[in-house]
């Protein structure tokens, strides 16, 4: 389905099951009085089809089980403290729905679960949205592709959602000049036949060059200018900022093949501002984390692409020491971020 071939053994080593620890309870989370809580999830990718392995046969994708895990997440959200919002980082349904004529049926099932949470739902556009919907349809069901959000519950904070696919060559529903522009851009960086499926799109590419894949995208000039303005405005008001998008922008936070084409331009803007706290992204099903120039770049791992479907989340618990990530089948990592984090619940606590 458009994933380039990579060294399978290298992929298996990178995604070996991480440390298994316990998860934090609502009571433990409440010991750190939060500024506000919000739910977060990425890459649900539901489809009513049997389990299948990924392109390089390193992970079995459990398409039907994904809906059950989303239900677990919704239960977790609704059983705990009030959420200021829920962040859906994109890929709500899988590409298979388009080829099976199940796009709208599957999408309705997923959104029905999200609607059980009495909090605003904020959606990022992922590549699988573009496999299933036209841009016009996405605007009607999601609203603007990039936007900022704030409310009484998030006072002093601004949440920015970016459109990682502002420039893309996916849009399988539409064929226009913008799509050809993306193909021309990609052809300058990737010598392979990027218009043909089944081809090793990564052949001859190494390091950060591997981001130039047809299933990734870029952020165009107008959106970059908008981001600069949003961060400057937030800074002038004394607001801290959380950024969400489908694609990552920080090398090291995920695999090189899952990063925004022009990530350097985004990082250049972030580096000008001291009020950005965290950048959340999806897309890389293995997940990852890196702290860069004071900003926490967090990519939660995708539950549907593993052989364990329940309680697949991590928590960053605040103690006297820096936060430690604990959770079932999650990487163990530490950071100084003043937050409590799971792919289903984020609690911001005072510094």
Describe this structure in words.
This protein is of the alpha/beta class and 351 residues long. Helices cover 26% and strands 18% of the residues. The strands form 4 sheets. A 6-stranded mixed beta sheet has the order 6-7-8-9-11-10, covered by helices on one side. A 5-stranded mixed beta sheet has the order 5-4-1-16-15, covered by helices on one side. It has a 3-stranded antiparallel beta sheet with strand order 12-13-14, with no helix packed on it. Strand 2 and strand 3 form a beta hairpin. Helix 9 runs parallel beside helix 10. The termini are far apart. The N terminus is likely disordered.
Topology:
Layout: H1 8-14, H2 26-30, E1 36-41, E2 52-53, E3 60-61, H3 65-79, E4 83-88, H4 96-99, H5 103-114, E5 121-123, H6 127-132, H7 135-142, E6 147-149, E7 157-161, H8 177-187, H9 221-236, E8 240-244, H10 263-270, E9 276-280, E10 288-292, E11 295-299, E12 314-317, E13 323-327, E14 334-335, E15 339-341, E16 346-348
Parallel strand pairs: 1-4, 4-5, 7-8, 8-9, 9-11
Antiparallel strand pairs: 1-16, 2-3, 6-7, 10-11, 12-13, 13-14, 15-16
Helix pairs in contact: 3-5, 9-10
Q: Sheet bearing the most strands, described?
A: 6 strands, mixed
- Amount of beta strand: 15-25%
Distance between the termini: 44 Å
Q: In angstroms, what is the radius of gyration?
A: 19 Å
Instruction: Give the helix tally.
Output: 10
């Amino acid at each position: 389905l458009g994933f380039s071939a990579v060294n399978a053994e290298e992929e298996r080593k990178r995604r070996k099951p991480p440390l298994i620890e316990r998860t934090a309870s609502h009571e433990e989370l409440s010991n750190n009085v939060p500024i506000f809580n919000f739910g977060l999830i990425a890459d649900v990718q539901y489809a009513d089809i049997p389990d299948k392995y990924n392109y390089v046969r390193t992970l079995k994708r459990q398409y039907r089980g994904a809906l059950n895990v989303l239900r677990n997440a919704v239960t977790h959200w609704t059983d705990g403290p009030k959420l200021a919002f829920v962040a859906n980082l994109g890929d709500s349904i899988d590409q298979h729905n388009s080829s099976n004529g199940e796009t709208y049926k599957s999408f309705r099932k997923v959104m029905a679960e999200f609607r059980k949470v009495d909090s605003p739902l904020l959606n990022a556009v992922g590549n699988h949205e573009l496999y299933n919907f036209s841009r016009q349809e996405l605007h009607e069901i999601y609203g603007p592709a990039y936007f900022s959000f704030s409310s009484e519950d998030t006072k002093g904070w601004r949440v920015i959602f970016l459109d990682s696919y502002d420039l893309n060559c996916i849009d399988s529903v539409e064929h226009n000049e913008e799509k050809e522009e993306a193909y021309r851009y990609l052809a300058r960086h990737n010598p392979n036949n990027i218009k043909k499926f089944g081809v090793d799109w990564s052949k001859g590419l190494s390091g950060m060059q591997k981001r130039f894949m047809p299933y990734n995208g870029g952020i165009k000039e107008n959106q970059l200018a908008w981001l600069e303005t949003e961060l400057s405005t937030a800074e002038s008001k004394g607001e801290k900022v959380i950024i969400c998008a489908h694609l990552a922008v920080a090398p090291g936070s995920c695999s090189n093949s899952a990063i925004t084409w022009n990530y350097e331009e985004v990082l250049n803007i972030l580096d000008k501002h001291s009020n950005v706290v965290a950048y959340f992204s999806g897309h890389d099903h293995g997940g990852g984390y890196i702290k860069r120039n004071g900003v926490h770049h967090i990519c939660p791992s995708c539950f549907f692409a593993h052989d364990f479907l329940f309680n697949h989340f991590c928590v960053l618990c605040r103690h006297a020491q820096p936060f430690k990530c604990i959770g079932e089948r999650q990487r163990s990592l530490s950071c100084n971020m003043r937050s409590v984090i799971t792919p289903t619940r984020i609690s911001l606590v005072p510094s």
